[in-house]
Design a protein that fits this description.
- The protein has 4 helices and 23 strands.
- It is mainly β.
- The C terminus is likely disordered.
């Protein structure tokens, strides 16, 4: 019989049944963690402050990796067997919790400096089975979801299995996203389609703007939020490594050594080209001699 372990507070490193919680200098507030199963690892980077967060390990051998954020970031993670949930640095989630559903050994990966509005739902499965009436073969396999850096996702967006979103993109409110999104591109609608390309966005909110603010922000000459194909590292490479690595500790070590380049998660307008492109070979050699 499986034992439920609910965590409301923690020390630095804890063994929870046959699971591990690694939390150097992390804090919890209005949050809870459930371990059910074995071989799971929760890693909270130094300085993480969980506020209004729920994390549920409902199976075995999964990894949750949460990085520090200077913004409010409320979410719920429900995951089963052999999956990875990764949350990069300085992501923000406005208001109502985002819900991330992981199953059938697939992954959800979210880069850094993303701005997510309320009502976001993200899943890697349909989740029920669909078969071809002709071949009797299953036709709806589960697929991982990857989001790059500095992506703005509007309110009540649904992101479905297999979606990849390149850095710098914008997903309009109420969108249902089923396709890959190139970098610095706006998608919207149900199902979502490309609305505009060659755009970038910034965090300042116009709600309280005066005419002076509007004038000030009419132009921005920097290119810090424009992403290019220099020093990229494909989502396909991450998926390949997370699938190849059998042990949760090896997956955690891999995540701790991800590249930091600005353009790491650039996706070309030719998204197939972006997904074929591999990272530099030395990223494959972390921890190897």
């Amino acid at each position: 019989m499986l034992m439920d372990y609910w965590i409301k507070k923690f020390g630095t490193d804890m063994k929870i049944g046959d699971n591990e919680l690694i939390a150097p200098d992390a804090e919890m507030e209005n949050s809870s963690i459930l371990f059910r199963g074995k071989g799971n690892i929760l890693f909270l980077a130094p300085g993480v402050h969980l506020n209004n967060v729920v994390i549920k390990f409902l199976g075995n051998n999964s990894v949750v990796y949460i990085s520090k954020s200077k913004y409010p970031c409320a979410f719920q993670v429900n995951m089963f067997h052999d999956s990875v949930f990764y949350m990069g640095e300085n992501n923000s989630i406005n208001g109502k919790k985002a819900v991330f559903q992981l199953s059938e050994y697939k992954n959800i990966f979210i880069g850094a400096d993303n701005m997510l509005s309320y009502g976001l739902t993200l899943r890697v499965a349909d989740p029920h089975l669909i078969y071809s009436a002709t071949t009797k073969e299953r036709v709806n396999p589960s697929k991982s979801v990857y989001i790059g850096d500095h992506v703005w996702i509007g309110q009540n967006v649904n992101i479905l299995k297999g979606v990849r979103i390149g850095s710098g993109s914008i997903i309009a409110g109420e969108a249902v996203l089923t396709k890959p999104v190139p970098s610095n591109t706006t998608f919207g609608g149900n199902p979502a389609k490309k609305l505009k390309e060659g755009v970038f966005w910034m965090r300042p909110s116009v709600h309280a703007f005066t005419s002076a603010h509007t004038e000030k922000w009419q132009r921005h000459d920097g290119d810090e939020f424009i992403f290019t194909n220099k020093n990229t590292y494909s989502f396909a490479t991450i998926e390949k490594e997370l699938t190849r690595l059998a042990h949760t500790q090896d997956k955690l070590t891999f995540l701790q050594h991800l590249p930091k380049d600005k353009n790491r998660f650039f996706m070309d307008v030719d998204v197939n080209k972006s997904q074929r492109k591999s990272g530099k070979s030395h990223f494959f050699n972390w921890g190897k001699k």
